Here is the input.
Amino acid sequence: MLPPLAQMWRRDDGSTGDEHDDAGWRMAAAAAVSDLRRAQRPAPMKLIIQIPCYNEEFSLPVTLAALPRKVPGFDRVEWLVIDDGSTDRTVQVAKDHGVDHVVSHPHNKGLAQTFMTGIEASLRLGADVIVNTDADNQYNADDIPDLVAPILKKEAQIVVGERPISEIAHFSAAKKLLQRVGSWVVSLASGVRVPDAPCGFRAFDRAAAVQVYVFTDYTYTIETIIQAGRRNIAIKTVPISTNDDIRPSRLVKSTASYVWRSFLTIVRVFMLYMPMAFLGSLAALSAAAGLVLGFRYLVYLALGEGAGHLQSVVLAAILLIASMVFLMGALISDMVAANRRLLEEVRMRRLADEIDGANPGTGASRPGSR
Here is the structure.
C-alpha cells in the first residue's frame, strides 16, 4: 500500500514509479518529524514587569533605565506602567522611555487597587510571570533574575524579596522593629514564614496571580501573602539588595501614621480571613474578665462587703454582654467569610476563562497548573 503522498505522485501516463514512492515516503516522514518537533518545542515565555505609579515623572526614568529587556528563561520581557491618576507627566515619561503598555486610572485609587489593576492587565497581556517593582527605584533591578528563578525551577509560585532591613540607613529604628513585628504577624496568619512581608518586590506565576485579590486600599503586600498561605500556594523568599532613597516614602508619612495604618490593616486582614479565631478570642477574653469580676463580687458579698463593690457587678455585666456580641459577630463573620470565598472562586474562574480566551493554547491560568 502506497502512502497518501506517494499515491498522489504520478507520472504523466498515470502510473506511479518506485522513485516517486521513495519521494512520497520522504516527504511524509519529513512532515511527521516537523510536526513532532513543533509539538515538543516549549511555548514562548513572557515576563511582564509592572510598575504602579502616582506622580513619578522624576523617579520613573531612573527606574526604567535599570530594568532589563532580557531575562534568562524568557523569550519576551515587557514593561507595564499603571498610572494611578497622576497629575504630572508620568504617562508621557513612560511612553518616551519605551514602556510597552500603560494603563491609567481616571483618578487616584491607592496603591493596593493599582497593584490589582496591573496584575489583571498583565494576565490579559499573556504574562507567564509577573514581577512587581516600585517606581521610586527602591529595589535593585539586577535581582530580577534571582527573583524569578524559583518560579522557573517550579520551586515556588510566588517569590518575595527579602531586604537587608538592618542595613538600610534611611529606615528608623522604630520602622525596622515594626517591619519585623509585622512580618511575624503575617507569618502567623498565613502559616508561611516570610521575613520581609512588607516588601513589594515580588514575582507571581500566572496561576498564582489569578488567585490574588486585594480587599484593602492601603497596601497589597500583607494581604497577598496571607491569601497565598491559606490557598496553599507555594511561597519562597530570596535575598535582594536595595538602592539609595531618591524620595521619601508616600506610604510612610510618619512613624505614628505607619503604626496606626499597619495595625488597621492587620486587624482587617484577621477579620477577613480568620474571623472566628479573631472575634472568638475577643469573646473568650471578655467572658473570662467578666467571670473574674463576677466571682470577685461574690467573694465580697460572702464576706458581707458586697455593697461597696457594685461597680464590679456592672463591669462584669458589660464584659459578659460584650462577649456575647463578639461571639455573635464571630458566627456572622464566619458565614460572610464563607460567602466571600465562594465569590472569590467565581471571580477567579471567570478571570481564568477570560485570560485563556485571550491567550488560547496556554491553559496555564488554572490553579495548580504550573
